[in-house]
Amino acid sequence: MSQVKETTACITIEFTNLARVIVGENQIDMEISPDETYADVIERLGRMYPDLLGILIEPDGRKFMNSNMFIINNEMADPVMVMEDYPKAGDHLTLVSVATGG
User: Fold this and answer.
1) CB 23 within 8 A of CB 49
2) Pairing between strand 9-15 and 68-72?
3) How confident is the model at residue 99 (pLDDT cuts 50, 70, 90)?
4) Can you give the pLDDT at residue 76?
5) From CA 15, how far away is CA 99, in angstroms rounded?
6) d(CA 35, CA 66)
7) pTM value?
């Protein structure tokens, strides 16, 4: 019996705060290929929701603006910092904005 190589994986993206207001959804499921990076996911979000560009996503569409990040599987100690890493099937990515200021 031959093994079939997995061609897509499903991840969940949860939106919080301003992202939720802009997107108008609490979360979405996204099918990704195994070779898609976090930067690719961000780029797809920018195409799906162009109002995120220049507010939460850099105008180039490949990374978040300062103070925005994905938290992976609710692990606050392990945010996405390297955009060229790969999400895994079943990952739950939460888009958060870290409030700063004084």
Assistant:
1) yes
2) unpaired
3) low
4) 77
5) 15
6) 25
7) 0.85
